[in-house]
User: Which sequence fits this backbone?
């Protein structure tokens, strides 16, 4: 499901940001999936939007979901490696999405009305 977050959800957010899941317990929880086999300019836009969301929601729990791109996408492959090493959010491979459900259940995460 796509959620568009804007300034009504996050004060001072200059433009809407699309996330795949948005919830809240004691802090907000955001999940964004990125298809790393798209054109690099689209991948970059999504990555920068997610990093900006991280900057304006420092207390939030953030998950980025993706999969290793084919070697035929060298720039996207490097981006994938960098995302996996980031300490600003939790990276999940697409095969690990059940961890989102476990996290939500363990922490009482409820959907944010958007």
Assistant:
């Amino acid at each position: 499901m796509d959620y568009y977050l804007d300034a009504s959800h996050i004060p001072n957010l200059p433009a809407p940001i699309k996330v795949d899941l948005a919830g809240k317990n004691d802090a907000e929880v955001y999940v964004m999936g990125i298809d790393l086999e798209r054109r690099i300019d689209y991948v970059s836009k999504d990555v920068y939007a997610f990093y900006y969301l991280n900057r304006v929601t420092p207390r939030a729990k953030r998950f980025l979901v993706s999969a290793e791109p084919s070697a035929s996408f060298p720039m996207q492959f490097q981006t994938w490696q960098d995302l996996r090493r980031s300490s600003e959010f939790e990276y999940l491979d697409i095969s690990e999405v059940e961890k989102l459900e476990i996290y939500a259940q363990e922490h009482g995460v409820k959907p944010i009305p958007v």
